[in-house]
Amino acid sequence: MLSTVIFSLLVVIRFTFCEEKGLNITIIHTTDMHGWVNGHPHEPTMNANLGDIYNYMYHMKQKQGPQSKVMAFDTGDYSQGTGLSDATPIQGEFIFKVIQKMPYDGLCIGNHELKTNPCIDNVANNVVPFWKGRYLAINVHHINSSKKMGDRYFTLDLPNGKGKVLVFGWLLTWNSHDTNAYVTKVETSLKESFFNEAFAIPNVKLIICLCHIDTTNPEVELIRKFMKKNKPSVPVVMLTGHSHKKRTFVPSTSDYEMESDHYSRCLGLLNFVLPDALLNGNVTNADSLNITYKQQFLTTNVAQMQASAGIRNSSQWDTPTGLAIKAELKKKNDELHLSEVIGCSPKQYAAKDLYPIMVNKVLPSRFKFSTKFVYTMKNNVMRYPLYKGQIVYNDIFTIDPFNYSVRTYSNVKGEHLKKLAPLLNEYYFSDNLKSLNNSSTFELIHTMNEEKKITATLDTIARGVYKPRDLGYWFRPIFVDYVRNYMKCGKTFTDRGEGEGEETTVDVDSDQMTLTSFDEEQHAEAEEESVGATESADPIDEGEQHPKKKTFNTTTCIVCVVSACAVVAVAGVFVAILMAKKRRRTQRSLESVSFTNGEVEPLL
Q1: Which domain, by its residues, includes 505?
Q2: Calpha distance 122→110 (Å, rounded)
C-alpha cells in the first residue's frame, strides 16, 4: 500500500510539472492461454472469461485519440489446458474459432500448436488465412511448402501519419513437434533475406517482437540485439511467453521485455510515450530517449478490469461481441458436458501431490492392481490442482491436458528396475518398487511422455534388452474412470496404495463445489521441449522482476517526494487548480488509464 501511495504521488507530481509530449502507447498482452477462456471456477477472484477480456480490450481501444494508440497482442499456446481446447475432435479448434472474435492486433504461434498433426493442419488451413498476415511464425514451417504456419512480419499505422509499428513473431528453438511441421533455430532465422525488406520500410517508430520464448532464454536478447543493430533509432518491445511466469526486464533505456503469466490469469499492461523527437525523425540512437515504461499485471477480475478501463457503471461493461463470446463458451461447455459432476475429492491436492495417486491408484486401477506391474510418471504431466469438493469433467482436462498413450516395457527384471529409479530423479515410481524380487520380472507401465528418457536409461543398464510397446490405452479415460468408480461423493477414498496413505471420507454433496484460492507451484515446460533454452542461475519467482531490471531506489524516492512536496506547498493554489482541471478531464479512477493529450497516466 505504501509503495502504491508513493508511486501515485510521484506520477501526479511528474505530470503536473513535466508533462511528456508525444504519442501515448498502451499494449495489452496475453500469453499461454491453454484453453482457459471460461474463467477459473475454483478461483473466484479470477472471474473474467474471454468475453470479459474482449470487453476490456474494446473499452480501452475506445479511449484512443489523435495522440494515443492501444494495441493488443498474444504470444501463443492456445490449446492443451481445458476441455474447451482438448475435448473437441481437433485439439484447439474451438479456441481458435472463438479467438477470431477478439480484437488482437497480432498473434504468434506457440509450441503446443505443434503437438498434433490435426492441430498443425488446422493452424495452416484455417488460423493463418483468417488473420490475414497478423499470425506470425518466422521460424515454424509446414512440411508442405505450399502451406504456411504463420507470416513473418506486418506493420500497424500510428495515428495522424506519425509512423509505423513493425511487428515480428517467433517460436523458441524447439524439436518436440509432430511430423507435419518443423522449427528452425532462432539464430538461423535471423539470417533470412526478408529482414532486408522489413528493415527498409520507411518511418518505423516502434518495433514489437512477439516471442513464444521464455524471457530468460538467451534467444530473446539475441532477437532484441539483432533489431537494435539494424534499427538503432527505434525502441523495441519484446512480448514473451512459454515459462508461465510474470516477468519484466529493462535491457536498455529505450527497450522493454514483458511476459504475462498463463491460463488467462492476468493481462499484461504496458504504457509509454514515443517522444516527439522520435516521431519527427530527430533521433539516431533510441537509447538516448530514456523512455519511461509503466507496467502492470492486471488480474482477470471483472471489477478490477472495469476500474482499469474506467467503467464506473457495470451496466456499461458488456458489449454485443463480448456477450456473443460468452454465449459461445456456454454453448460449447454444455455440448461437451464439461460441467458434469463425475466424483468428489476429500481434500485439495497441488499438482505435484497428484503423482503418487497416479502411479499408486489411477494407473493400477486399469490393470486390476496386479502386483506384477510397476508404474512410473514424469513430474511434468499434471498441470493444475485437484480441488476439494465436486470434480467435474473439465477438471480432468485441466489436470491432464495431454492424454498420453499408455505403454509398457515387458519382463523387466526387478534388479534392473531398482537400478533405473535412482537414475530418473524427475520420475515418480509406484510404492511397490521397494519390495520387488530382484530375479522376478515385471511390466513397467508408463506413458509416451516418459518413454524417450526411460529407453535411453534402460539401455545403460541392459543395452537393447527392453523395447516399449503400446497397450492401446490413453491416460485421460483411465483417470476419468478412476474418479467415477473410486472417488464417489460420500464414499471413502484412500490416496495411496493398499493399506497405505490417508483414508478420507468424501462427505461432499454432489451439487456442492468448493471455491478456494490455491497457491499452485508453477512448472516450466519440459526440459527436452526447449533446445537452447537455459534456466536462469537465479530463478525468478512469479511476479518478480528480472535481476537486471531498473527499479526506483527507495531513498531517492523519499528525497524526491519531500522535495516535490515543498514545491507543492509553495505553489499550492496553482497546483490545486491544475489538479482539479486534470481530474475533470480524465473522469476516471486512479486504476484506469487515460490516452488523452499524449500523457502517460498511472497504471495502479
Answers
A1: 340-529
A2: 14
